[in-house]
Amino acid sequence: MTGTNHLPSQASTHPSAQPLLQVKNLKKYFPIQKGFFRHVLGNVRAVDDVSFFIHEGETLALVGESGCGKTTTSRCILRALTPTSGQMLFGTPDATRVDLAKLTRQELRPLRPQMQLIFQDPYSSLNPRMTLFDIVGEPLLVNGMTNRRERVERVAELLRLVGLRPEFMQRYPHAFSGGQRQRIGIARALALHPRLVVADEPISALDVSVQAQILNLMLDLQKRMNLTYLFVAHNLSVVKHISARVAVMYVGKIVETAETTELFALPKHPYTAALLAAVPVPDPRVKTGSVELKGEVPSPANPPSGCYFHPRCEFAVDVCRREAPAYRERSPGHFVACHRADELKLPGIA
Amino acid sequence: MNHATPLLSVHNLQVQFFMDEGIVQAVDGVSFDVFPRQVFGIVGESGCGKSVTMKAILQILEPPGRIVKGEILLNRNGSTIDLAKLNPNGKEMRDIRGAQIALIPQEPMSSFSPVHTVGDQIIEAIRLHQPVHARAARQIALEMFRDVGIPMPEQRLDEYAWQLSGGLRQRAMIAMALSCHPRLLIADEPTTAIDVTTQAQILRLLRKLQEEHHTAIIFITHDLGVIAQMADYVQVMYLGLVMEEGPVDAIFHAPKHPYTQALLRSIPSVHSTPRVNLPTISGSIPHPFNRPSGCPFHPRCPQFIAGKCDKHIPPLRSVGGVQAAACVLYHDVEVPR
Amino acid sequence: MREPMANANPVVLPLDQVVKSVAEERVSVASNWKLVWWRFRKHHLALFSAGVLILFYLVVLVPDFFATYDPEATDAKLSFIPIQGIHLLDGARISPWAPAIVGKRNAVTLKMEWQVDATKQVPLHLFVRGYPYKVLGIFETDIHLFGSGSQDADAKVFLLGTDRLGRDQWSRLMYGTRTSMTVGLVAVALSVVLGVVLGGVSGYFGGWLDLIIQRLIELLQSLPTIPIWLAMTAALPQDWRPDQVFLAITIILALVGWTTLGREVRGRFLSLREEDFVLAAELAGCSRWRIITRHMVPAFMSHIIATSTLAIPVMIINETSLSFLGLGIRPPAISWGVLLQEAQNLQTIALAPWLLIPGLFVILAVLAFNIVGDGLRDAADPYGH
Fold it and tell me: How many domains does chain B have?
């Protein structure tokens, strides 16, 4: 494969169109319980008032370090977890919008096919006791395709779509390498023609030489099937590569959202800038780590006052210690939660 | 490039795993020299043998793994000693581990005991190699904690590993590794389990300490970004064999082996253009048990020459002066090894 | 195809490419149970033990076929006859025989003393006719595996001697095997059902159900077992038929014994609930029932089987101890424990040490179960490697 296959660039703002998914003030608290009677001591604010939107056919990356709440956010959207509060408005094909946060298990079932997940770990995400046919065919079976022959055909089609040979259908996952397993996982996620695909660190468990294959496959599939990706990742290089827009999370909150090129070139939040500076660049002539971030990520069970980032921020002033900054749109499509977003000139990456 | 005496010199190291199903050649004839004050990087993907090499040097290979051939020469005060010939559990090897060669593991959580405080474990390590009293050892441990930038070091010494955050744990591990002033530090994926901002801190710390203590480091990782930032000299491994080696600049700016070239092209970078298909390496890494004949990379190599690449393992030979590659593109092989 | 060389250079695997890909294909399509079996059969001792257990359960199916005499038939004259011993060869010919026994009354003690008379041979035959019995309660026959085929008093063969009442110990042992091995199996089967259902409910649904079941398990585990058995068996009506007692004992053993398994199942459910492939099934729209039966239960079934195999010998020992103490199965029913009860006093042991032989059967069965269980446990997770 060659590297000059440009995909159509994605428009970041659709002023008129309704977003496919609009998340408003999403919160997910996990109670800290203690003792025999499990009384609640406090809350881990894993997701703390998060708002964002994704348009149809777009890729939004959710970036952050471990414990920042990006995975919890994605699990809430898929309703693998029930949010504590907030709205998650999902546009159904008939143009009505349902709030995923409010649905019961029964009400969710007809919506399940429209939202699927690509897992991080290609080993634990495939049931080792089922053949490829059973794994990829299960979503089809439980959603009404009971005719086995029909299913065989569709599974073969899906395997071809992700670059696997249909003859592999009778094999078990243990016969495949990590990259191939990830392809199987993608085939399963796509079996029901989902509209929203949540990809939770889909390549971070793979070998370096295989990662590019999966990234390219995801890009190709998006183009062919008009998929919408919510791409959860910690690796900014990968994020730059795949997403149209990026949302940066820190201790349960989104601190900055912008179009990918803008966020990388002109970060407005000091945390984003520090994150960008920390990425080790595979070029010995470019020395990275010039800006060193002091200290460690605070615990979401006991976050600092004001702006959660202020203890580590070199630009912190008094107001940062006192008040939590509002998450506002500073320039078209560029949302930042920082008191000094407009005055700071932060270094980015071209 | 460096004419000093090497601190550690590995010659034709071969490690095999004797499994029920057969023999796995995990490391197949690896040779390298590590000089004082050098950061020697070994980079490779899973199954390439980088960790096995590290374990062989420290003589901590688990059965069924065994060194079957080769020398691991450690220069100690002017005399050389072959670690491969030492009894892995003997006193001599135990004296070398920790005092001469120390290890920074990938997951410090599993390297600290959960039932002793971090301080006690470091003090024990210090007293194992240095004739000092408990109080003096604690003082040394405290100094080390300050050195590696642990805030409130006195308090942290009395905490357990599970009470520390990932970054602090790794700092404590580095403090323990450096506490006996080893001349060689082996860092096995030291930042893989750590977040990117903390990773930057740890890498910077390692660099700083290496300059202060004049330690040599063998830095093992799969992350090309980290290796580019850390290493002076790089060895690229694939399925137990060295594919290419050379100074870091040459490896990243003038790679010779098709594997190195393809790997560098295929990794996404923060400098690349968004949403452009990357050049890929086809296929996946074979299981070390089914290593392809000849050059192990040949089934995935874009420049594969039938009848040559799949027949003989090309030896590592000098290419372009500073680096060396194991590829028939540069050295035609006629006779099997 | 070239024959793979046995000791070629290990660097280049000498296997022919074709052979390798066929083997790979075979592994690729191998189901979980096949992988477990491939690993289990490498464990030769476990395989042998499994053979021993199969023999035991053949006896369980048709004990009469293996018995030589009616185990209930008493003959006071024939009490305490020692082991006769079988000779396989008659001269150079394979023709099994046993030496006849000759009784002589001791003039002083007036007791019958039995001696082996090697000069008189009683020939043994395979598939001889003996007392009539029903196979599995269906059809009647009188064919036995072996025996002398004669009802003559001096042509009788008591393979493992006789007891106080002159009953043939070998035949009684066959019956005891049926009872003891069945109690073990049924009690474990019952406790598996209890353990999987209660542990599964506890682990999958959690909440207050989990709380109640966990406290119940803790309660059961904190009570000493012997007093519980005592209390429960004492509560059994004295006039129950032996088969009713047998059933009751089995249920009692299961009621006390399911807790460990219940805990294990709960733990498995708890960890499986967090597994990615279970979440994937949930997101695919699978029903709870399908997730449990298709994804969760199969994931720990092999472990459950291994654990159950290790639980059977415990049950056998429990039954034997109970019956030995006179609390479990009572005569006239026969179990290993009941047989050992005969050897309870020193006098019997001194006079008729062969009455301890049922103990050897217990040891053999327990060892075989343990070895098979260990082999299964090692083979149960074929994906670890």
Answer: 1
